[in-house]
Amino acid sequence: MRAAVLEQPGLPVRVEDLVLDEPRAGEVRVRITASGVCHSDLHVRDAEWERPGPIVLGHEGAGIVEAVGPGVTGLEPGRQVVLSWYYPCLRCRACQSGRQWLCSDTPALAHRSPDGTTRLHRADGQDVLAYLAIGTMAERTVVPVEAAIPIPDAVAPEVAALIGCSVSTGVGAVIKTAEVPAGASVAVFGLGGVGLSVVMGAALAGATRIVAVDRVPEKLERARDLGATHVVLAGDPDETIRAVRAAAGGQGPDFTFEAIGLPATIEQSIAVLPRGGTAVLVGLTRFGARASFEAFPFVDGSLRILGSNYGFAVAALDFPRLAELHLAGRLPIEKLIDARIGLDDLEDAFARMRRGESVRRVITF
Ligand SMILES: NC(=O)c1ccc[n+]([C@@H]2O[C@H](COP(=O)([O-])OP(=O)(O)OC[C@H]3O[C@@H](n4cnc5c(N)ncnc54)[C@H](O)[C@@H]3O)[C@@H](O)[C@H]2O)c1
Ligand SMILES: [Zn+2]
Ligand SMILES: [Zn+2]
User: Fold this and answer.
1) Please, which of 133, 203, 233, 263 could form a disulfide with 291 given CB 3.0 to 4.6 Å?
2) Is there an atom of ligand 1 within 6 Å of 315 CB?
């Protein structure tokens, strides 16, 4: 089976033929139909995050269940599923309190099956890991049944894939993390798949002013199409802050969302807030990065900063809801998709993403 393998962070990805084991107890085999290219894959590819190798990349995927292992009930071959990149242990304190996005014991972070082994091997027997234990940039994958969430067949595979990361992350940051009320003003820094999903989420929540910020002009047009009411081409930071404040109605946006992962834009997303405002940090920085803010106005103005992992997703509840919102015409997820590409085009997709050129390129199989 063909898969995009990263030997170690920093090296180009190579497409290889791998051997995939049969699903064991509690696992299912999924034939991948679509896998989005997310900046979190690029962080790994570019060695901004330490990760072990060799590893099959990809964590934003959907597919069709092909086979189920012993003991699996409730999920049959033929069902369309979205894969969750943070499947929960369901036993730790975070899981017990319903906050699965904070699970402290998820096997996903070891990039292995829960029993510590891997289902992927090279022809010579060498083990290959699966990114976040799902490794979706491959023709097939074997995952624990908790990571495979059924959604309606009517959802197109490319759309289903994006529900697996960018859409859950961006829409969830608005609806679940920030709980943006109708009538609020919102600014979004960074208009990739995640930031544009924030724009869609803000429109869904009934935000009346949605200010979209990016350094690439084409992104601004995309954002308008998805519900942004104002756009700002990012340039000099002070100019950008002034423009965002003016667009948000003078004082500044009630909520900001940083969907890039750079200290400079994190600082802007805090600096632009009016008294009582909330900055939601969604973009992930390289390891070790720090950002700062002026403390006095933060306290005096009762500001808030919220971190948002996976849009606070409880996959089994939220993936089907996002799918239904899409089918009802209220989340035009298909508009995030730039191009359908092959596995061999992954390095090209990464190069475009570094330049801020594409929104979501989706690998289809
Ligand atoms: N919190 C989470 O759970 C979670 C989940 C998925 C992705 N992420 C992170 O979210 C971030 C965005 O992911 P993506 O896939 O949308 O990335 P992307 O590369 O597609 O989009 C980033 C956008 O930011 C713009 N940009 C870059 N530098 C800028 C600057 N200085 N000023 C203004 N705009 C700038 C780019 O032009 C691009 O449009 C990444 O850091 C990713 O790792 C976080
Ligand atoms: Zn992602
Ligand atoms: Zn847990």
Assistant:
1) 263
2) no
Q: Which of 131, 115, 116, 109 is nearest to 309 (CA)?
A: 109
**Bridge partners (DSSP) listed for residue 121:** 19, 127
- Which atom, in ligand 1's list, is nearest to the CA of 173? 1
Which ligand does the CA of 336 lie closest to?
1
The encoded tokens of residue 164 equal 């697996």
d(CA 301, CA 294): 11
Instruction: Please state, in angstroms and rounded to a whole number, the distance separating the CA atoms of residues 234 and 303.
Output: 23
- Which residues of the chain are modeled with pLDDT < 50? none
Q: Return the structure tokens found at 268.
A: 């802007």
Separation of alpha carbons 177 and 171, rounded Å: 9
Spatial CB neighbours of 177, under 8 Å, sequence gap ≥ 6: 280, 306, 308, 311, 312
Q: What's the 86 CA to ligand 3 centre distance in angstroms? A: 10
Tens-place pLDDT, residues 280-289? 999 999 999 9
Question: If you compute the radius of gyration of the chain from its CA atoms, what whole number of angstroms results?
Answer: 20
* Contact call for residues 213 and 350 (beta carbons, < 8 A): no
CB-ligand 1 contact for 252 (6 Å cutoff)? no
Query: Residue 237: which of 278, 193, 267, 280 has the closest Cα?
Result: 267
Ranges of beta strands (E only) in 170-264 are: 185-189, 209-214, 230-233, 255-258
